[in-house]
């Protein structure tokens, strides 16, 4: 580890909610800062006035708050630091590391077209203004043309820098353009503002996505021109979709706000931390403290990370169950499967709160909102079967609607004929008239009925499960029926009989 105090930054452009890659960058920087007792700085890179989006800074802060990624300094805004950049530019002009370019956008566009036609290497500028005479400069100035300022790249040789993840990297200087440092609107470009800030903010390590790798030789040359010591660089591996192409909208949601109402922040932090970092090849579950304790740049992978939504769902399920336990029950139990007897686990009031909130958001508007008392009864039955809270309304809607919707064919499964199914349901209806609606009494009443009817228990219970819930897979049948209550169960079984009659 370097002697320097660790100071790292997250430097998003305010163009909307951060995407998964941005937020992974924020998290890695934050973990690194917290591991070393250093500082994590938030810097808003808002020098591109054309790309600025209203509300984006709030969106960035909200995303970080959600994941409890707190910053020690900032947010700094580059748009409020223009004087610093202007001073830097003057320095480079004075030392002849930069020059004024008067070329119009039209000329540049034409030049690029011609270059493309000639199939020349796609340089974005032909350096026409690099060596203007004082007379030529005077002529442009007298026409009132506002120049941009460009960096005088070395024309030959190579630039090598060390990357803490990838090792030494070398670029041919001939591949590097005379990049614009200051635009004609007086705002700096990313390159200038970024390195000036990293210098003046005394950033020790620049950790960012590897889409910025090709900018780094330019930055290194700028540091040299200023005679500044560059920070250490660590470029994070790309994030790929499951099909191994770069993660994009095609793979579904890529913006963090799409995850905010669906996943638990603890699960998201754990998941993001493993996108390009690992402790070993087996440990998957890390608390925030464990991540801080173990995080190191040495364990960042060079090869791309794959964004696996199923893994995120699985992790979310893990945290959901863990957090659903009442405080006094050992957390180890979070991974334990439902008790063989189907005895439902206890749940915390916190979990019931979250479930209430998510049902409130996710149940269709026409469905009456359940009372807390009702949700308290359902929570233990579904907690083991949820990967995300959203699934509560999606998969267990039958607890809340008047009648579940399903195809009558479902009632027959593979084994039953319409006649046997009707016979089974009618027998159940009769038996249930005098049955008390608690799980034990229901089981005592219904289990012997299967053999009385000459049906396999599994087939008979399956039939009842579909009639009462509309689903082939649901929580334990008798507990579910007890929660649904007598009136609703009888009505649903009756409806099932009618459906079968109508279908035959
Ligand atoms: N503003 C850049 C971004 O939006 C920052 C890149 C860097 O970290 O240097 O990601």
Structure, explained:
- This protein has four domains: 162 residues, HUPs (Rossmann fold); 100 residues, Glutamyl-tRNA Synthetase, Domain 3 (Glutamyl-tRNA Synthetase, domain 3); 75 residues, no CATH class; 96 residues, Arc Repressor Mutant, subunit A.
- Helix content is 44%, strand content 10%.
- The chain has 19 helices and twelve strands.
- A three-stranded parallel beta sheet has the order 1-2-3.
- Helix 9 crosses helix 11 and helix 12 packs across helix 13.
- The radius of gyration is 32 Å and the shape is elongated.
- About 3% of the residues have low confidence.
What key phrases describe this protein's structure?
single chain, 504 residues, mainly alpha, Rossmann fold, Glutamyl-tRNA Synthetase, domain 3, three-stranded parallel β-sheet, three-stranded antiparallel β-sheet, 19 helices, 12 strands, elongated, binds glutamic acid
């Amino acid at each position: 580890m370097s002697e320097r105090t660790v100071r790292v930054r997250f430097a998003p452009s305010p163009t909307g909610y951060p995407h998964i890659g941005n937020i992974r960058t924020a998290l890695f920087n934050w973990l690194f800062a917290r591991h070393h007792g250093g500082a994590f700085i938030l810097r808003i890179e808002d020098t591109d006035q054309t790309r600025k989006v209203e509300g984006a800074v709030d969106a960035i802060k909200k995303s970080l708050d959600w994941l409890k990624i707190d910053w020690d300094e900032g947010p700094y805004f580059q748009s409020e630091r223009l004087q610093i950049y202007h001073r830097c530019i003057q320095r480079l002009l004075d030392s002849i590391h930069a020059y004024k370019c008067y070329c119009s956008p039209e000329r540049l566009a034409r030049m690029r077209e011609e270059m493309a036609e000639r199939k020349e290497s796609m340089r974005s500028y032909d350096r026409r203004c690099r060596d203007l005479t004082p007379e030529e400069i005077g002529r442009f100035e007298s026409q009132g043309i506002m120049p941009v300022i460009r960096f005088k790249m070395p024309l030959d040789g190579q630039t090598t820098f060390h990357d803490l993840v990838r090792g030494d990297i070398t670029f041919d200087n001939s591949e590097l353009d005379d990049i614009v440092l200051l635009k004609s609107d007086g705002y700096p470009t990313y390159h200038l503002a970024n390195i000036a800030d990293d210098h003046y903010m005394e950033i020790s390590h620049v950790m960012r996505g590897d889409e910025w790798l090709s900018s780094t030789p330019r930055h290194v040359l700028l540091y040299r021109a200023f005679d500044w010591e560059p920070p250490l660089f660590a470029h994070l591996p790309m994030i790929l979709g499951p099909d191994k192409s770069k993660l994009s909208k095609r793979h579904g949601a890529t913006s963090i706000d799409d995850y905010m109402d669906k996943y638990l922040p603890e699960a998201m932090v754990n998941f993001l931390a493993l996108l390009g970092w690992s402790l070993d090849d087996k440990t998957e579950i890390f608390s925030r403290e464990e991540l801080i304790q173990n995080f190191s740049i040495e364990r960042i992978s060079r090869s791309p990370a794959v964004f696996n939504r199923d893994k995120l769902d699985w992790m979310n399920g893990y945290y959901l169950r863990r957090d659903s336990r009442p405080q006094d029950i050992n957390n180890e139990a979070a991974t334990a499967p439902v008790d063989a007897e189907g005895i439902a686990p206890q749940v915390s009031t916190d979990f019931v709160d979250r479930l209430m909130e998510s049902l409130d958001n996710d149940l269709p508007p026409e469905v009456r909102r359940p009372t807390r008392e009702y949700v308290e009864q359902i929570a233990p039955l579904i907690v083991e079967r949820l990967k995300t809270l959203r699934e509560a309304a999606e998969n267990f809607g039958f607890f809340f609607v008047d009648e579940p919707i399903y195809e009558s064919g479902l009632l027959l499964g593979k084994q039953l004929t319409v006649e046997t199914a009707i016979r089974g349901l009618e027998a159940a209806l009769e038996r249930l008239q005098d049955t008390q609606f608690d799980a034990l009494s229901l089981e005592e009443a219904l289990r012997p009925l299967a053999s009385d009817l000459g049906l396999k228990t599994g087939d008979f219970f399956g039939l009842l499960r579909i009639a009462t819930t509309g689903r082939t897979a649901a929580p334990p049948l008798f507990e579910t029926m007890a929660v649904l209550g007598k009136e609703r169960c009888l009505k649903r079984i009756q409806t099932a009989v009618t459906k079968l009659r109508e279908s035959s």
